[in-house]
Design goal:
This protein is mainly alpha-helical. Helix content is 27%, strand content 5%.
């Protein structure tokens, strides 16, 4: 009997060591083949097929994904217990690990993203005393900040009120970005690797990257920018001219207007969503009809020196447009550069251009 149990223990130990060795060696195996090992699991087949037709077709799985020992043991467990999902989704911890790996190939884009507001971390967004005192945190905050977070906002920050003080309930998230690369890019999106165009790209029809897509946390899916709608906005009863640049559809997912509240003039007259409401920054006035990307860098929102793209060194009145009284030169200016009009400064009439 003792020999029997000893045999059982030895067999169990050998099986355990075999599983651990198999899991530990998986990253080395997966690194030297183009997803064939990943495709052996039926729920990964669609993802492997998609990556082979995407801009990342020459990238192996391990350049973006992490196959740690704990992760591989978890994969073994879910398959042995029959609890593997038909459609797999990345966990928030997986997204954070992948974001750091994007830097290996996209160094310039990663650097500009880190230098801008889109790289704001969980502590900056969810424990901001000024914002939280004005508006109570809700799950809708996670639509744009922390869309990959696996849980509700109450699982992330406490207390859920406007008096505070607020703190993150999950340690280690303080420095994690709330808008990682996968918020606006889908790695497996079908398309060709970026290359220099054969001819000059028209300014009227800027290209839409194949990977540009908004991640919707409710559907757990990426929606490509070229299929997203650009809203029609109104300046009271007048329809505002909006650039047809389809890349803007991605911006509108977060920098969105609000439906007019009951009791307002716009609601009483049944006017549509008003420009400048909510977090909307649709250009009006002298800038009406231009694209967000005419001035802003997509990764860090920087508009530094963008005026000179369209304006000469001096305006017709002899003043440098970057030094005019707008929020471009001074954030406290009463004239928001997004919808400044000539008459905002020239209240007694616009002077004729100097010859």
């Amino acid at each position: 009997m003792i020999r029997f149990w000893r045999f059982i223990v030895v067999c169990a130990a050998c099986a355990g060591l075999f599983v651990i060795a198999l899991a530990a060696s998986a990253p080395f195996y997966l690194r030297f083949q183009r997803g064939q090992g990943c495709e052996s699991c039926h729920e990964m087949t669609a993802h492997v097929n998609a990556i082979h037709g995407s801009a990342h077709r020459n990238t192996n799985c391990m350049q973006c994904h992490t196959a740690s020992l704990s992760a591989k043991l978890r994969h073994v467990r879910v398959h042995m217990t029959g609890s593997a999902l038909e459609v797999t989704h990345l966990r928030d911890v997986d997204v954070m690990e992948m974001t750091a790996k994007c830097q290996a190939c996209h160094q310039h884009e990663f650097a500009t993203w880190q230098a801008g507001p889109h790289s704001a971390n969980y502590a900056q967004i969810f424990t901001n005393p000024v914002h939280n005192a004005e508006r109570r945190l809700t799950d809708d905050c996670l639509r744009c900040h922390g869309m990959h977070f696996n849980g509700a906002v109450r699982d992330l920050v406490q207390p859920m009120n406007t008096s505070g003080p607020w703190h993150l309930t999950q340690k280690g998230r303080e420095d994690e970005p709330t808008i990682p690369c996968m918020a606006c890019h889908e790695l497996h999106r079908e398309g060709s690797p970026q290359a220099r165009p054969a001819s000059r790209i028209s300014i009227a029809t800027p290209p839409v990257r194949d990977s540009l897509a908004f991640f919707d946390r409710r559907e757990q899916l990426h929606f490509p920018a070229r299929l997203l709608a650009i809203p029609q906005l109104w300046d009271e009863s007048r329809a505002v001219k909006i650039s047809p640049d389809q890349r803007q559809a991605l911006c509108y997912q977060c920098h969105a207007p609000r439906i007019s509240e009951t009791g307002t003039v716009a609601a009483s007259n049944h006017w549509g969503p008003q420009v400048g409401s909510g977090d909307d920054r649709t250009p009006m006035g002298v800038h009406e009809g231009i694209s967000c990307f005419s001035c802003h860098n997509g990764h860090n929102e920087s508009a530094t020196a963008s005026c000179k793209t369209c304006h000469p060194q001096m305006s017709h009145c002899g003043i440098d447009v970057e030094k005019m009284d707008t929020t471009f030169a001074n954030a406290k200016s009463a004239h928001n550069v997004h919808w400044v009009r000539c008459t905002d400064c020239h209240q007694h009439g616009v002077p004729r251009p100097k010859v």
